[in-house]
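assembly run, all chains below
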Amino acid sequence: MSSIVDLTLVELINKIKKKEVSSKETTNAYIERCKKSKKLNSFITEDFDQALKKADAFDNNPNFEKKLPGIPIAVKDLFCTKDLRTTAGSKILNNFIPTYESTVTNNLWENGAILLGKLNCDEFAMGSSNETSFFGNVQNPIGENLVPGGSSGGSASALAAKLTPATIGTDTGGSIRQPASFTGTVGLKPTYGSCSRYGIVAFASSLDQAGPMTRDVKDCALMFEVMSSFDKKDSTSIDFERDNYLNKLKDTIKGKKIGIPKEYRVDGMSKEIDELWQKGIKIIKEAGADVVDISLPNTMYALPAYYIVAPAEASSNLARYDGVKYGFRSKGENLIDMYEKTRSEGFGDEVKRRILIGTYVLSSGYYDAYYLKAQKVRRLIKNDFDQAYKNVDAILTPSTPSSAFKIGEKTNDPVSMYLNDIFTVPINLAGLPAISIPAGIDAKGYPLGLQIIGKAFDEQNIFNIAYTMEKHINFKNEIKSWWM
Amino acid sequence: MTKNKSEYLIKRNENEYEVIIGLEVHAQVLSESKLFSDSPTKFGADPNTQVSLVDAAFPGMLPVINEFCIKQAVKTGIGLNAKINKRSIFDRKNYFYADLPQGYQISQYKNPIVGEGSVILDLPSGEKVVGIERLHLEQDAGKSIHDIDPQNTLVDLNRSGVALMEIVSKPDLRSLDEVNAYVKKLRSIMRYLGTCDGNMQEGSLRADVNVSVRKKGDKKLGTRCEIKNVNSIKFMQMAIEYEANRQVDLIEDGGSVDQETRLFDTKKNQTRSMRSKEDAHDYRYFPDPDLLPLEFDDQFISNLKKEIPELPDVKKKRFIEKFNLSPYEANILVSDIETSKYFEEVIKNSDVKISTNWITGELFALLNEKNLEITQSPISSKNLSKLINLIKDGTISGKIAKSVFEIMAEGDKDPQIIIDEKGLKQESDPKELEKLIDRVIKDNQDKVKEYKSGKDKLFGFFVGQAMKVSGGKANPQLVNEILKKKLK
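ok done. output:
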């Protein structure tokens, strides 16, 4: 019998329901492994004592009707958790303890899950390698000194290292899918409006979306089912009928039409990525789906538009971190001096860079040329997808242009770092759902992911495609616990 | 637009200057809760007791539109005869200040909820139409308190997030009297609508005042200065007067006016520069991504139209036409909704003319003297109506009525009871009056002689004597008639 931490979430739930294993045993197993895995630096804040108490409480009065009965789960430190420090990976929130719970995490706890701790991430989710975190780099369990991707790097690392049976992240431009791809795990960026943003530290409000990160597609469907809810506290939350995604999961895609956008074959795409993509296409065909060549002509404008819209919103969203009400404050001679010192010392370089970009593109005289134009591009990109979806049911692309890179490799070249998001960003701009599933390894043996993009609110469809492909690919994440 | 006869001009040397005024009135929406949160909005609560996580801008907190405030703004738009925009957008106005927790104010920039409209001013010289540019919704900020702690500035966030309507007029105002009439009319309309209590002491109504001057006859507007946050009509007038004269002096000295934002110092009665155009904030407005565009249909507007009460202009017209009141009287009675309600209660069962005179005369004097609102009137409309009926049917004279009124002012007593208790009923029996007058004539034979020899003025003396003898109760009209007969 494999040990508790080797089980997928769905397998673990079944064992708990059959009383073959208790919540306490499960929680203990994960805590033990977490304690031996500090080298990965996946956690910012551990909540082990409380987790054990909650596990005890569950075992004493178990409710197996719950979807996540007594399951310990660690979450990205962007979700506000009541009475537990929430930092967003930033010094400026180093001492911030919310008195409230985010809707998404609340949905987890309502469904029986237990908070294990808060996972490392890029500062305010700004980054693609988890190197902008105030709390230090995170190791990718795939190999030493490799980045786990970002911004949900701690989540991906903890998940791949089996420090949590499943986790949740947030995705503004690829922050779930890219780290999932880098760590050989599954990550879903849901349709904008599916998961409430209430209680999630905001990066770029019109793009931010929480989503699950899991070991396989079944787990992903279940986690999404739990996370997603209509929430009046978020005006952009959408009231639609949430499905029983796991129960409806099918491993057949016969007759489905899958689009292959030619614009994603970018200049300088590595042979490995191209081969991976071809492999995916072949699998889809074998599974009985039709492959259709499509065009998303405005794809090339997505990344520049994203790097205007996201910093613009961020520059405003982060204005509240001013040292007045909560979080870090540096002493100043006067109000302005206090602001300057607090924000200079409290924010890291990447956050400052984006605040500056955002402030610039919103300035009077530049607004029309940058922000307004970027919004127009955004509409064009959405139109591209709308056009494409007249002929296809989903779209298949690579998740990232490369596999995990070395820590420090791209820290001095922000543009090359931003290029990591080239395949993921258009989906956020269009508000669509997309899943990344592990599909193979490169020459170095590092995992690579494929991305399936769906129509809005068509998560069930992309789960089905991903599930079907997963069975064909039969990817095994070869992780040797080198850090232990 | 009729010509304003009470023109406001500033004379310097050989030149006459016209003063151009536009107001941005900030009216607090009458609402139990804030624009984007469910915190209460009660005035005078202890500091930071009416603050939600949203108002204090905690991480991950999101604004949710309070539909009631939207309705209030649309109603106000209807009351201003304005275009209601079925699609409007909330924008973020970004700037840093200690009492602005989000680091931005949620406001409406390019697409306000209400567009162009108009307000009719009732001036002594006639009516004047003042254009409304727009009305938009925005959040109020908190309050910085600098004078409690010697080391620190304290912040009270009770007001943070309270809904304000910013009502922007066109630069149509030309005098201090027009400013007074405009603010009062806006206040009146909003009080009729129940969309703003108009309480200036509590800061429910404040204004930014835009002032410029130009030589009389010039068509082009001069450079304007904006005087921020003036919180009473008197201060607005003082600020405008100072500012207009300052600008005229600048021009007369060969200089020019710089566009800038100024503050009015109420102690020194001066405006002073706050920041120049060069230092103006770049607010980096952009649509708030936390909020969807505000959209509603014709049904929404027509439903609200049904809730609109009769407004002062219409009521005034009705009072003039139906009750034959003068425009002046009608104005006085409709300017405040509560006064108009009181008036309409009284005239339900009483003579309109006498009621109008008594309300605008005795009652207003009483309220003024005691510094009371009409809603606090010591005399209820019911009892005033009774008093007026007693005058009308001759039970008491106007003079007696005044003393009854004084007693009523002490405790809102039924005037009939007062009259009965004090025996104040008017003597209208001709036989009794004849007896009384005979006595007066008998007691004043010398005066009768004088009168009959041509001293007509003495007639008043006899009336006075008759009234005196009757203890003021004699019906003066009958006394007149009988005296005339007897003294023939």
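The two ends of chain B are 58 Å apart (CA to CA).

The first helix of chain B runs from residue 67 to 79.

not gonna interpret more than that til we talk
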